[in-house]
TrEMBL record:
Span of domain Glycosyl hydrolase family 36 N-terminal: 50-286
GO biological-process terms attached to the record: carbohydrate catabolic process
GO molecular function (one): alpha-galactosidase activity
Record-linked CDD domains: GH36
Domain of life, source organism: Bacteria
Enzyme Commission no: 3.2.1.22
Protein name, as recorded: Alpha-galactosidase
Binding site for substrate: W198, D365, D366, R445, K479, W480, D481, C482, N483, C528, D550
Annotated signal peptide: 1-27
Similarity remark: Belongs to the glycosyl hydrolase.
Pfam families: Glyco_hydro_36C, Glyco_hydro_36N, Melibiase
InterPro entries: Aldolase_TIM, Alpga-gal_N_sf, Alpha-glycosidase_related, GH, Glyco_hydro_27/36_CS, Glyco_hydro_36, Glyco_hydro_36_C, Glyco_hydro_36_N
UniProt KW DNA damage keyword: no
Length: 737
């Protein structure tokens, strides 16, 4: 890794094409532009050596002009508002702080001044800027990290806090990042955020930010995204559309309590502060110990929300999720067909159905474990991870072999962070459970959370996974669930440091997942949390996919999967065909094909035509999955604004694409009235368009006419998929000829 110190640099230096920074003599301003392919943020010191963020937006053609930005704003703005790159409290900065501390002597003031910065080349595409700031009075230091992904226009930012004071310093607030957006937007700033609940995940709201502070946060401990999400979009001037407008996407890579503050000041500047929620979480930092915050990721686009989302999706596939450029397994799950009521005979039949259907893997869900406290419902057994001898007298290994005999793989469900009071584990280790010692226990889904701040508990949870693989080396898939939140937070392990529990729990979880990935680097893991309660890139860096919602009604899923697609690639979205909803099997399969396809239905109840349709659709999916999983996604018609939702995926060389169309309004006469313009194609190529996933006995909505068009025609005129009450879902395949 190559490192450059700023002290010996000329005025402007281009660093390996992905990041540049400028410096002057120590007494003068230091300007640090951080560039990606299209964007730049600019940091600059003032006369007192405070470091400010003076620009975030489109990259300038002349890098030397970055040094002139702050002067322009100083001439126009005499409000005295500071734009600190990491706002401290208790000194000259009067806005919402990114960091608040109580020093070892009890003083609560903090003043951070610029010391130096370095830039490292991680790869041809990735660079790392590290800015060091210190307090002139106290031996207290903050390092800001900016990891930039040049081609993807994505930045990850985090902070590392350290001190050498004579005693313990209390961190009262410790954000990951502090962004400042200049108030030169006549239409103001518009926040798109998400709220929800079980089976109602990612409900969007968009509104103009008013003066003062708007906060979105979570205090649930686990399932942190159940009610609010840390992901958001900020549009400038007016709400951005798919293809137009200035928009900033942001999300915190953290699976616990989060807090994002949006402060619109008197000069109409917007400050965004994102990090771990400091509520009930002051952290006691000993001398010489580093406290590292989770990364906050963001990307900016002046070409609308679609461009911004494709940047994030590309970044995630390339750098964040496990095997993002690889393959995934289609599967059949038993949950909707058996719930807790199964035995080896039933499962043997389902394994044969797995082969008959044509998917890759059978997934055994909840209910396979516990003997003294058998898991026959959700009120017992969690923590006792031995096979239930009545249901599975020959164990998991016999099921793995049976699956192999049927030519399919075998996967299994676990919820290793949790415990039922009705369990051997609870009786043996009550000190491993998060609960107040002198208060009544309060349950969420009849369970409590294990204390992952405790290294012994971390060993136990890792052992749950490791023992399954040790006993069953051919086990091919894990569904990892997390159904409870933290009530009555108390850790017997932490003793007097109870305010550490929410932070140390998540770091303990990550320690376990790191160990799992170190030993089993490529095994597919599904991230589930009572549905979508834990969908974030802090967790997803250890998983191959996530479960968006327990609500599998396909009409509802059109909306849920649509909103997740703004931040997460299709390859990570586990979409299952179930019996939820009133739509026909074709509609259900077509909706599930928008991501990573799975089934959770009773195959034996399908009619002959329905089974034939599913088998045919799986073959179609096999030919299109590369475009869906690794291609560019384009949202063509929103379900929120139209009778029909349309979305398409285009593979890398623009030789193949697929367009999904779903009727979302069943009122009389609803449907596609005019052609839908496609996106992302090569205007000079000719594409043959045909309908696929046609139910037996039905003809194509396109008829028998020649359906060959240029990409130019399809993107400027479009095609009518003729989605209506007779054809509630239509899937079109495009192939270049």
């Amino acid at each position: 890794m190559r490192t450059t110190q700023n002290k010996t640099l000329p005025l402007v230096l281009l660093f390996a094409g992905s990041m540049l920074f400028a410096g002057r003599a120590a007494a003068q301003d230091v300007t640090i532009p951080v560039e990606t392919q299209h964007n730049a943020i600019v940091l600059q010191t003032d006369a007192e050596k405070h470091l400010n963020m003076v620009y975030l937006g489109t990259k300038l053609a002349n890098s030397a002009e970055y040094a002139r930005i702050s002067k322009m704003y100083r001439q126009a703005d005499d409000s005295g508002v500071q734009n600190d790159v990491y706002t401290p409290s208790g000194s000259a900065s009067l806005g919402e702080p990114a960091i608040t501390v109580t020093h070892a002597d009890g003083n609560k003031s903090l003043n951070l001044v610029y010391v130096n910065h370095t830039v490292s080349k991680v790869s041809d595409d990735v660079s790392l800027l590290v800015v060091t700031m210190k307090d002139p009075v106290y031996d207290f230091e903050v390092k800001l990290y900016y990891k930039t992904y040049y081609k993807e226009d994505v930045t990850e930012q985090w902070s590392v806090i350290k001190h050498n004071e004579k005693g313990v310093v209390t961190l009262n607030k410790y954000a990951s990042a502090n962004l400042n957006l200049k108030g030169n937007t006549p239409g103001g700033f518009w926040l798109k955020q998400y709220h929800g609940n079980w089976a109602m995940e990612v409900q969007p709201e968009e509104a103009r930010l008013t003066h003062g502070i708007k906060t979105i946060d979570s205090k649930l401990g686990t399932r942190a995204n159940l009610y609010e999400h840390s992901m958001f979009a900020i549009s400038m001037d007016k709400p951005a559309t798919e293809d137009e407008g200035k928009v900033l996407y942001g999300a915190l890579e953290w699976s616990g309590n989060f807090r994002v503050d949006f402060e619109l000041d008197v000069a109409n500047n917007l400050k965004i502060i994102a990090g771990i929620n400091n509520a009930a979480s002051e952290y006691h930092l000993k001398p010489g110990v580093e406290f590292t915050t989770p990364a906050f990721l963001y990307t900016y686009s002046d070409h609308g929300k679609g461009d911004a989302s494709r940047k994030l999706q590309s970044w995630a596939r390339q750098y964040k999720i496990v095997d993002g450029n690889g393959s995934r397994l289609t599967l059949l799950n038993n949950w909707e067909s058996t719930y807790f009521d199964f035995n080896e005979s039933k499962l043997a039949g389902l394994l044969k159905d797995t082969k008959k259907l044509g998917v890759d893997l059978f997934l055994l869900d909840d209910g396979w474990f516990g003997n003294n406290h058998p898991r026959n419902g959700d009120n017992a057994g969690l923590g006792d991870w031995q096979e239930n001898k009545q249901k599975l007298p020959n164990g998991i290994s016999s099921l793995v072999k049976e699956a192999q005999a049927n030519g399919v793989k075998f996967g299994i469900w676990i919820e290793p962070e949790m415990v039922n009071p009705a369990s051997d584990l609870y009786k043996a280790h009550p000190d491993w459970v998060i609960k107040q010692p002198n208060r009544p226990e309060k349950y969420f889904r009849n369970q409590l959370v294990l204390d992952l701040a405790n290294p012994k508990v971390q060993d136990f949870v890792f052992g749950v996974v490791d023992n399954l693989f040790t006993k069953n080396p051919d086990l091919a898939y894990i569904k990892w669930d997390c159904n409870a939140v933290i009530y009555n937070a108390y850790s017997a392990y932490l003793k007097k440091d109870q305010s550490h529990i929410y932070v140390d729990y998540v770091n303990g979880l990550y320690n376990v997942l790191k160990r799992v990935r170190a030993k089993y680097p490529k095994v597919p893991l599904m991230l589930c949390s009572g549905g979508g309660g834990r969908v974030d890139y802090g967790a997803l860096q250890y998983f191959t996919e996530y479960w968006p919602s327990d609500n599998t009604d396909p009409l509802e899923r059109v909306f849920i999967q649509w909103e997740y697609s703004f931040f997460y690639p299709a390859i990570t979205s586990s979409n299952h065909v179930t019996d939820w909803g009133k739509q026909p099997i074709k509609y259900r399969v077509d909706v599930a094909m928008m991501g990573k396809l799975g089934f959770d239905i009773v195959i034996g109840k399908l009619s002959e035509d329905e089974l034939a349709f599913c088998q045919s659709a799986l073959k179609n999916y096999d030919g299109l999955k590369d475009a869906i999983w690794h291609g560019d996604q384009y949202r063509l018609a929103s379900p929120w604004d139209n009778d029909v939702a349309s979305i398409m995926y285009v593979n890398t060389d623009k030789s193949k694409a697929v367009m999904f169309n779903y009727l979302v309004n069943n009122r009389y006469g609803s449907g596609t009235k005019v052609p839908v313009r496609l996106k992302g194609l090569d205007p000079n190529k000719k594409y043959r368009v045909k309908e696929i996933n046609i139910f037996p006995g039905r003809g194509s909505v396109l008829g028998n006419d020649d359906q060959t068009f240029t990409g130019d025609f399809l993107m400027n005129v479009g095609i009518n998929p003729k989605t209506n009450a007779s054809h509630t879902s239509v899937v079109l395949q495009l192939e270049a000829i």
